[in-house]
Amino acid sequence: MAGPRKLIVVANRGPVAYARSAAGERVKRRGGGGLVGALRGLVAQHDVTWIASAISDEDAAAAAEHEGEAFEETWQDGSPYRLRLVMHEPSAYERFYNVVANPTLWFLQHYMWGLAYAPDFDRSLHEAWSNGYVPVNEGFANATLAELERDPDAAVFVHDYHLYLAPRLVRERRPDVLMAHFVHIPWPETDYWSVLPPQLRVAIHEGVLASDIVGFHTDRWRENFLRTCEDVLGAEVDHAGATIAYAGRQTLATSHAIGVDVEDFDRLCESAEVLEEERAIVARRPEHLVVRVDRTDPSKNVVRGFRAFGLFLELHPEFCGRAQLLALLDPSRQDIPEYTEYLAAIHLEARTVNERFQTGTWTPIDLHVADNFAQSVAAYKQYDALLVNAVFDGLNLVSKEAPLVNGRDGVLILSENAGSHDELGSWALGVNPFDVYGQAQAIHAALTMEPADRRRRATAICEHVREHDLAAWVAAQLHDFDRVASPPASGEYDSRG
Ligand code: F6P
After folding, report:
1. pTM above 0.85?
2. How far is the CA of 417 from the centre of ligand 1 (A)?
3. Which of 89, 192, 193, 306 could make a disulfide contact with 349, Cβ separation 3.0–4.6 Å?
């Protein structure tokens, strides 16, 4: 199907977050998270209504002004779209986000528990599920149904682990709607899902399978999903065709790794803000610069990365004074104790390494905890080695964005558990995220690599990222919609599109 389509995008975060300026005026900020950038192509080219949570007080005020209905908005590039902000009861949203979605589902899906002591689910999880996760998902489902009333032909595109229940609630009332769910984070294996109480893991799988398409960034997560559908629900799975038959319906599981908006990055690279940040980095950079850019999320493995840098200096003292780790970390989810504790651990580890190795003129780890995207892009341009050592990651966009704009044939050190490892692993230095010694060795290998080898790897990654860009990912999603809207006569899909 060519031309613009009617799409209802459903995601916890919206493309804008409203706030009130000191002068008392409403101001718009770009909504947080990678998802917003990822969906830019959809909004620019299609007729999009975006349903999101009213998160800030000012979001709630904007929603109330429109009596909870959708209203016209414009994207940063001027593209029009409709925005519908769902108002949740504050205590329900708090349980949804700070008890279920992040410390439970995010932790589960990133294999974040050692299991001997954590998790320790008590009544609060069950209570937060019933009085938080369920009502917030109901709020999203009701908003989606209201938009479908207005536009019965629109397709619904749900995102992420916040909204596992909403698709089923929509399906119950609109059996005919075309609906896809994209899961941007890893999908773990059955044994790890079994950590979650049975009624929750069954509800999650049933909720997700109410969609016609369930998308992941890699085959690894998709294969796990096919298996858990069999194991958790006893669904009938065709592994070759990647389809799941359950409760009289068929769902197609796909994998398409998201890409970068190349044009946007090319523009951003030359923007005054980024150039100014780059000048500051160049003025103080040592001979060898290792960079990491992450949210302060335990799944990003910052503490082990700092330890690895300390070990690298211990093993190779000739780099003392000549190499620095520049860590640009965006503070994240600071209402959740596990996240505040992790941020404290990050500061402590940086201090430990610095106190051990620093001199009067050189600091081994230059740690910045702030939301400064321009500085991150400037650091992308300047690294000699980029450290991405996530414990697990659905994809990891940094590992694609940074090589795209790097000007020094920098070497990518990449966790074997990042989704992007499937695509970029043969040109990166792969690391086991738990092996601190292995990461120290990889840092040394990256900084001593022959120039020709560096260039060969950096060029290959850059070419791959340019070719498999955001537009390609958006096209693949829309192609999937078309395939399930008119299935082949045999009923068998080619799961790779
Ligand atoms: O898919 C993971 C994700 O939802 C991304 O969109 C984003 O990078 C991150 O999590 C942001 O999380 P939060 O919305 O909790 O800040």
Report:
1. yes
2. 18
3. 306
